[in-house]
Amino acid sequence: MNIINRLNAADPGFRSALKKLLDWTSVADTGVQTTVDTVIQAIRERGDEALLEFTAKFDRLALPSAEALAFTEAEIDAAVARTPDNLLAALEAAAVRISAYAERQKMQSWSYTEADGTVLGQQITPLDRVGLYVPGGKAAYPSSVLMNAIPARVAGVRELVMVVPTPDGVANDTVLAAARVAGVDRIFRIGGAQAVAALAYGTATVPAVDKIVGPGNIYVAAAKRAVFGKVGIDMIAGPSEILIVSDGLTDPDWIAMDLFSQAEHDQQAQAILISPDAQFLDRVAESVTRLVESQPRADIIRTALADRGALIAVKNLDEAIALANEIAPEHLELSFAGAENRLSEIRHAGAIFVGKYTAEALGDYCAGPNHVLPTSGTARFSSPLGVYDFQKRSSIIQCSAAGSVALGELAVVLAESEGLYAHAQSARYRVEGNR
Amino acid sequence: MNIINRLNAADPGFRSALKKLLDWTSVADTGVQTTVDTVIQAIRERGDEALLEFTAKFDRLALPSAEALAFTEAEIDAAVARTPDNLLAALEAAAVRISAYAERQKMQSWSYTEADGTVLGQQITPLDRVGLYVPGGKAAYPSSVLMNAIPARVAGVRELVMVVPTPDGVANDTVLAAARVAGVDRIFRIGGAQAVAALAYGTATVPAVDKIVGPGNIYVAAAKRAVFGKVGIDMIAGPSEILIVSDGLTDPDWIAMDLFSQAEHDQQAQAILISPDAQFLDRVAESVTRLVESQPRADIIRTALADRGALIAVKNLDEAIALANEIAPEHLELSFAGAENRLSEIRHAGAIFVGKYTAEALGDYCAGPNHVLPTSGTARFSSPLGVYDFQKRSSIIQCSAAGSVALGELAVVLAESEGLYAHAQSARYRVEGNR
């Protein structure tokens, strides 16, 4: 068995092999859905009482009262104090860069006045209150706290509520420190579907929010899908992916490590390299084989590369870019000279890493743009998390007397054609009243 | 029984009465879901063949072949020719205004260069292909075709595919004419869950799209929810709503007719007036009683106003605005002098109609802003349909050699704290390679 799949776009079986490689569907387990529905119903009916029960059951954490669901300021202070200085400094430096980029994304209100005095516009407002889900245990990533919380803060969200499970009562200090750095207002030690339900519907202790963001396991994803409509949610993410296009002039060890940096996330993660240089692909395969040995997460990397990784030979960079657009990857690394001149040809990608110095890992942590990105080809229709996701638009229409006559006459014709006579009469009153 | 409910914000029972009035939840019928799942599965497995079968069954339209699923250019030409000139002119005039407003919404790509030469940016691209669902029969609204199609066109979507069921083979000429005016590329005579499934997964005849927008019945809504993730969807809309805040100085007949213009949509539609002038509320009640008699859709209006309509007395305009923010209405009419000075106090509303000349009906048809708006309080976290919904963002990161050193050092600290060692090594290579 190869350590990573080898494909050639010129082979007759290429299309079906690629399709198989890219195929990923989340397992729709009705057992999960039933559990989640039960949990949500219990939280809606019994609030804090049910929340304490589920936390005792799923996280093996018995709390004396609902008040204890929230981290105290003193607890957070202590976690910050325990965080190494250089790590705290790195979190703060990353936060500055993430904020600076987010500031550029802010939507601003605008309006314009027409010749007859009618004003049209769009008013931008932040969401009132946002809930941020942070996984507990192994997959607790402080960088995720920054990436989810900072855009909300920059958008002007009034209150930012974080939930993070603490299995067996164990909290992650760095996650709490990241929450402090990002400006999270309140933190509750809850997780799973019960935390999502509490955020969506509110309990006596946990306030109801307007939108829930952040990654989670399959129960969390199912709960977010279930409460969608009552509140807003961010995307439901699939496994992480990287697609690298190289001309063959980047150090093969660098490329191998970039592939690993996705593969180490998850056995289902996807890492693909496309190059017109077949010999370069051989050299990368050699680097992969050699370097994987010393990787602390070698087992995960091996499984991911064997199941969902590939080195793909193509005719030229044009063909590589066409393939990239077809795949619509979460992360697209353009590791070749002059890549910046071909950006306009990239139609679908979550984030684009331009040139050989731009390791995807830099974007994951501190370049500035968000690391919450559309996966599984959804970059065809969706976007990175951003300030936009925490702002909303209201249309503004202010007709002058003259404007209401002109628009009213038009509206009467259209409303009557649709059989909506009250619409027509409502418009006609303004026409007649201003003539 | 009152023709419309009367509430006073000062009454002890007000909060619970308001809650009851606003309460609306779509009926989650498992029968509907089962039917929809079966239909989607059949379209995925048998494509056009299943599409023809469902169209024969649900729309009572037997087509000779899959080719006949598409309207021909000649059929559309004929529909346009049958459309009255003044109606065609009104559609075109409305389209010009909707386009002009949409142009202001277009997101533009941007980038900035940091001191060390690192470039960060955001690249905007349109969706490749969009599907527009248009209901058939009674609720076929040409204005909806314009409102859904034009923002997609302005965004630069390459292909716009419309589906519209033709029960018993009857097509709506004005809907086809509106599609022509809006620049729709292809139109298929299909509807229901089968049309949504065909757009999401594609058949030999109907191309797979990246996003599906447009209103539909409960089967269409359930199908959109089911294919969400495979493709993007717009919001799932509830019944239409209007909330009017008046100081009591607008003609009560105007206000009554504005309430009707929502109520006539649907027996579940919601029409609420809030005013600090109790005598004015009496006068509006009198107008409602008198004017409803001559309304062609009087029965629908009566049911909607009795079940979900209200005239609410408040202390002053401040209290009215606070209530409006709590309700987060789809349409908010501010029918009082100086309303434009209080816009910044409005935190949640789909569209705001400012001043007594701005009948909501003008916005429904031709003012310019979209009439597809968040309902049922979802204006707390979502926005009107717009060009944004047909564009997407890709983050751009291009590190200079120096930039990759600075960012790499930061990334190493953060990646190691998360136990992601390949991330750290990938960053470290750039640090070492550029020192």
TrEMBL record, chains A, B:
Belongs to the histidinol dehydrogenase family. GO terms for biological process: L-histidine biosynthetic process. The keyword Transferase does not apply. It catalyses: L-histidinol + 2 NAD(+) + H2O = L-histidine + 2 NADH + 3 H(+). Signal peptide: none annotated. One of its GO terms (cellular component) is cytosol. Zn(2+) binds at residues 262, 265, 364, 423. It comes from Halothiobacillus diazotrophicus. Binds 1 zinc ion per subunit. Pfam families: Histidinol_dh. The keyword Ligase does not apply. Its cofactor is Zn(2+). This is Histidinol dehydrogenase.
